[in-house]
Amino acid sequence: MTGIRRKLISATIIDNIFTNKKDDVLRSGVLMADISDHLPVFAVLKNKQLIKQETLLNYKRDRSFRAWEALKKDLEMQNWEEVYVKDVNTAYKSFMKKLMKLYNNNCKLFKSSGKRVDQPWMTKGIRNACAKKTQLYRNFLKSQTRVTEDRYKKYKNKLIAIIRKRKKDYYGELLEKNKANTKATWGIINSVTNRNKTRSKVPNYFVKDNVDIYDVKEISNEFNDFFVNVGRSLMGHDTLIEDNLNTVVNNVSSIFLGKVEKEEIREIVKNCGNKRSTDCEDLDMVTVKTITEFVIDPFTYICNLSLSTGVFPDAMKIAKVVPLFKNGDIHNFTNYRPVSLLPQFSKILEKVFASRLDKFIEKNMILHNEQYGFRTQHSTTMAIMDLTEKISEAIDNREYFISVFIDLKKAFDVIDHSRLLQKLYQYGIRGVAHQWVRSYLDNRKQYVQINGITSELRNIAYGVPQGSVLGPKLFNLYINDLVNVSDKLGSVLFADDTTLFYSGSDINEVTHVINIELIKVKNWFDINKLTLNLKKTNFILFNDKENIDVILEIDNMEIQRVKEIKFLGVMIDEALSWKSHIGYIKGKVAKAIAVLYSVKFLLNSEGLLLLYNALNLPYLNYCVEIWGTAYRTYTQPLFVLQKRAMRIIDNTHSTAPSNPLFIKYKVIKFHDLVIWRILHIMYKANKGTLPKNIQHIFEKRDSSYSLKGFEIFKKPRFRTRIKEMSISVNGVKLWNCLDREWKESRTLKVLSLHIKSRVLSGYDNGQLMWT
After folding, report:
1. Distance between CA atoms of 457 and 314, rounded to whole angstroms?
2. Domain Reverse transcriptase spans what residues (predicted)?
């Protein structure tokens, strides 16, 4: 079959449908519709008869206000006496049994009609006009005259204008109505841009050992077997390797699990995200937040009972897993990763324990300063800043700097529980807290759900729970002693993202040291049953102006040298020029602006500005205080794109002056954004709240040195531009020029508002804040 473009004089064949199975073609033809500039074609082919299965996707849960009010009323009248027993498993089962009975009675499942729903902006008049337009198009196809063509085109263009206006009015009114409701506002924006569409559905068959599998139950079981065995398949170090935990520091203090108060539970629940994803009980966090006050007494009792007895309830250990496609063949099980949805109440109990664990870890300084993952006042930005400061310092000192970027296979899935518990004991997680963690890890189970069909339950023997609160924190403690393996290599870690480095003036000495120390590192990985992915483990030699040949090896396998690498979302190149990363950001921002342009007829300026903040700012903001100081010739295209976005938001001409637009929408230009973010870091440095490895690069002058030296940092010496543009030099320079009253701002938010106000006023009067 072919698609045909119809014109007054001629017809053109465009689309084609080919098949070598003519007998399977049930029907084919051309559709008389003007959805594009040519007639669409179709073909209906025979397919294998699939067994129709009734799934949960055909049902929806009643989460209306009325249903919730009825649920709350019933909960308020409940007697929870059965919960107040000495066994936490019995207590939690009784709690959930009573809660779920009331939940299912009031928030019932009902069968979805599956009927097509019109676009929300659609009116009866527009629907009738669309039908008339289709009829005019058919008249033109039949008569093929200039009169019928003109009549159709005029009507179509007028209808397009009416629909655009209707959409813009509808979404404008909706945004105005919900301007105080952030969640509703983002829902509207996502609806307009189709960002809230569900992810691609799992295909109707999979292939294993060259056999097609169509049964959804069997597919679910195959997925579950694959996911639970990932850790087992990588646990390749079964032979006993002698090790006495000599790299794990023994902490004499032991953790104490304090009593849980109702106010703590309220605060934890309040700070949980309003997520609609459901757990194994079909509960979502929004529902839990709605009913918290009516179940807080029995649940607080359960939390205290759990902490005092060292038992994590078994019913909280069941994860619902949804496969998420990564890349490659969609019919291959290995091309999916698991998304684990844990019980809502388990997340709350985990956060109760995590708050006590965090305080103990920070108080006793258990985690090394090199670990930036999942810690307060730490972030990926700080990790990259630590690494790049060390690189720029080495380059400034005419040293060679080699950084090895380690890749581990499924690191979170292969954690050995017994070894983790040994390390926790060394760190001071002893007694009932140690029992609690053991109970938390033991006897965990999961099932996979696809299209509402669930697999059998499977035990999880290895790893830390995916999607959990405690998982990343336990992993940090597991990998913490890696830093102690070598007294030569430096390191920066963000959970399992690890880079090890060494620098010196003699490249042969640098290479020799790294190769020797990597033997120790590999041995540590073997002892801890972590598997290196040597194909994805790379290294970069910085400050290589002579194209030196360097060979690094692990287990007699050569590590690949690369000129650039993506580390924690930032492209780092061997010259530390940031050219590659800026090119990457430019591509992302350009795509985001294309989306902005595509919906400019649907949203008013306020809506477009929200979309700009959602799609563009995350790319421009992320680690910009590090890479944004690159050569202006590299970063200027980002500013050009930013100006284009402002003109789209204002629906103005492509050559219109941009300064008034930045002022009107209170948006800071890219180069000012860089400085703004740098001063955020310097404010924290002045307050002493940065991670220790970052804080120590800033040294304050003695306040008696000069009256003008109030809270002024010493400016480090530098030789190269790379060092000059680092935050340790450039940041100090900018901070020292800042007004004293701004340095004394009570909060970072106050300082931020001061700077933004001054910058925007500079766009108006031409007085630049930065010189």
Report:
1. 13
2. 305-572
Residue with tokens 């030699």: 541
- Specify whether the CB–CB gap between 353 and 302 falls below 8 A: no
At 205, which amino acid appears?
A: Y
Listed in sequence order, the residues at least 6 apart from 212 whose beta carbon sits closer than 8 Å to its beta carbon are: 205, 206
Beta strands 336-341 and 497-504 are unpaired
SS3 content of the chain, % helix, strand, coil (to 5): 50, 15, 35
Give just the sign of the alpha carbon dihedral 385, 390, 391, 392: positive
Residue pair 93/302 in contact (Cβ under 8 Å)? The answer is no
Q: How many Cα atoms are found within 13 Å in the side-chain-facing hemisphere of 34?
A: 21
Element (H, E) at 362: helix 344-363
Cβ(510)–Cβ(534) below 8 Å:
no
Distances in Å between the alpha carbon of 53 and those of 207, 212, 214, 330, 478? 20, 18, 12, 21, 44
Which tokens is 724 given? 């000059």
Name the DSSP class of 561.
E
What is the distance between the alpha carbons of residues 488 and 502, in angstroms, rounded to a whole number?
7
Contacts of 310 (CB under 8 A, 6+ apart): 431, 432, 433, 434, 435, 436, 438, 439
Taking CA 263 as the corner, what is the angle to CA 261 and CA 264, rounded to the nearest 5 degrees? 70
C-alpha distances (whole Å) from 497 to each of 71, 471, 486 are 45, 15, 18
| Mean pLDDT, contiguous 10-residue spans, the chain (771 residues) | 51 71 72 68 69 57 88 93 96 96 90 67 87 86 86 89 85 75 71 64 87 92 90 61 76 95 96 87 92 96 97 96 90 91 96 96 95 93 96 95 94 92 96 97 94 91 90 95 94 94 95 96 93 93 86 93 96 96 96 90 86 89 95 96 95 91 94 95 93 92 57 85 93 89 89 90 73 50
Closest CA to 348 of 424, 290, 288, 279: 288
| Token couple for 601 | 């007829």
Q: Which of 232, 235, 231 is nearest to 526 (CA)?
A: 235
Cα separation, 687 vs 406, whole angstroms? 34
d(CA 310, CA 438): 9
- Locate 339 and state its tokens: 């998304």
* Residues forming beta bridges with residue 60, ordered by sequence position: 110
What angle separates helix 670-687 from helix 748-765, to the nearest 10 degrees?
A: 150
Cβ atoms within 10 Å, residue 558? 10
Determine how β-strand 318-325 pairs with β-strand 336-341: antiparallel
State the CB neighbour count (10 A cutoff) for residue 360: 20
d(CA 183, CA 14): 44
Q: What is the pTM of this model?
A: 0.85
Q: What is the Cα–Cα distance from 33 to 117, expressed in whole angstroms?
A: 21
